[in-house]
Amino acid sequence: MSFFVLGQGSNIIPHPHVNKFVCQLSLRGVEIVRETTDEVFVKVAAGESWHEFVMSAVCNKWYGLENLALIPGSVGAAPVQNIGAYGVEVASAIQHVEVLSLNSEIQNISVEACEFGYRDSIFKRNRNQIILAVQFRLQKKAKVVVEYPQLKQQLTGLSSVIPTPQQIAAAVIQIRQAKLPDPSRDANVGSLFKNPIVSHKAAALIMSKHKGLVQYPQHNGVKLSAAQLIDRAGWKNKGTNAIECWPTQPLVIVNKSATQATEIIAFADAMKADIYKRYEVELELEPYELF
């Protein structure tokens, strides 16, 4: 029987029967490893709350993670999907990840060896390593990232020309609270699908047929908005008595009364099929299905 290490379970769709040994990692601790004039290197245990660490970093004037405030989950889970929001991915602040392998060897995986990509890493593809801690390389001088349109809009009207990291974290929290359901009240696993990345040729063809779609150039193609595709396809109004899209963010599916994971997956499969039929774009699940 294989094993599965759980963080806070905020990005997991568990099936009725799980043929794995499931354990929850509860390691705690935040340690300053070393400091320079401009940087601080902080080792954070995998069981720490991600949001609580981000907010403590902002309070301590350690910068680089403020755009990632209020993301559910643990610190150890953050590198697995290379969590990202509002123009920043966690990989940009990681120095290395401490792991325990199946042969009981503890080693540090450098940021280069983590093979980070869009919602991807070596840890997502190789479940034979348990993340024990993450060492971050954070800045003492703010280098704010405010290019994301919704964040930029939220920050308009500030008296300061350049927002502070504290203001960015506050703005991100306000956006997320206004836009997304609270998982403690409305059962959900966050974004159900990744934003699809298509080739430049495919993007040009899609844009010629469907005007007004947003697109974000990437080094390997063009990223489309899964939420916009779902919204345009009318899925906000296609919920069932048990499952529905969240009104202000159709990328998030809320479980009102479904009792089986298969109900959620069937709903997701129907969405995927419809989006492919309309746009010839393949959507990929973001949460992990736990069998």
Any idea what the radius of gyration is?
20 Å
How much strand?
25-35%
Number of helices: 7
Number of strands: 16
Provide the residue-averaged pLDDT: 94
Strand line-up across the major sheet: 4-5-10-8-9
The number of domains is 2
CATH class of the largest domain: Alpha Beta
CATH architecture of the largest domain: 2-Layer Sandwich
Shape: globular
- Helix-strand sequence: EEEEEHEEEEHEHHEHEEHEEHE
Structural class: alpha+beta
Distance between the termini: 12 Å
Largest sheet: 5 strands, antiparallel
* CATH T-level topology of the largest domain: Uridine Diphospho-n-acetylenolpyruvylglucosamine Reductase, domain 3
Low-confidence stretches: none
Helix content: 10-25%
Describe the protein's topology.
Blueprint: E1 2-6, E2 12-14, E3 20-24, E4 30-35, E5 39-45, H1 50-59, E6 84-85, E7 88-89, E8 94-101, E9 106-110, H2 122-125, E10 129-139, H3 149-154, H4 165-179, E11 197-198, H5 200-209, E12 215-218, E13 221-224, H6 226-232, E14 243-246, E15 249-255, H7 261-279, E16 288-290
Parallel strand pairs: 1-3, 2-16
Antiparallel strand pairs: 4-5, 5-10, 6-7, 8-9, 8-10, 11-13, 12-13, 14-15
